Amino acid sequence: MNCDRFRTVFISDAHLGSRGCNAEVLLSFLKSIDTQTLYLVGDIVDFWRLQSRSYWPSSHNEVVRRILTMVRRGTRVIFVPGNHDEAVRSYVGMNFGGIEIQMQDVHRCLDGRRLLVTHGDQYDLVVMHSRLLSKIGSSAYELLIRFNFLYNRYRRWRGKPYWSLSQYMKSRVKKACTFISNFEDTLIQEAKEKGLDGVVCGHIHHPSHVNEDGFTYLNCGDWIENCTAVVESESGHLSLLHATYFAPKITNDETEKDPMSSAQMASSFICPTREFSGEALTGLKNLDATKN
Description:
This protein is an alpha/beta fold.
């Protein structure tokens, strides 16, 4: 299989373990690339959802297996945990199965630019000061995604294209627009104070690529609705790509499926549902021993 080659790939907000995750699309994307470095920019696994219910279909398992296969084949993988997988932050500085865990990182581009790599929740006042409110908002978002699926099933029946209710609300609600703008400004200021040339983040599920006055802001987006990644080409060019660039068929096929389906619950990967234990991390080392 021919793969697109990159120097660096950044993905965030996969939310494996949640019913809205487009794991099949993410897996197809990961299989279509060959990269020297892969950054996992937080909320890769949604432990918040797994605390309330066990949901880990085989497709989610295959994404983890693919990442470990990439490690085995020489890709450097750096995991910067987010708020939904914050339990992993207890292991910052450690290496599990070849995956480096860092609270933040500074990525040096081919042209010498230095980018702050952070999930971004540390700069979200709601997450920082009201954990309960943040969790309620997360649950409401998942319900919104479910309603959005049902509504788009009706739209397909009417012969109309996909339409995102959550993206519409973000663009129309003044407070949401203000939050996104403030989030971007705060992260840009943080990176500038550190003397860096840009920032790569996630968290708000709002893919973005902004170049202004020699400074670069990149938000990876998510793998629930947008299915986007930030990439650095082998020549050092930074860009924001949609998964349909690599796998339009599987992306289109997945929109026909119910993301809330609980089929294929059985999995060889035992995913923790209450707390992220050291044993679970150790298990990641040998996860791909039985496959690939």
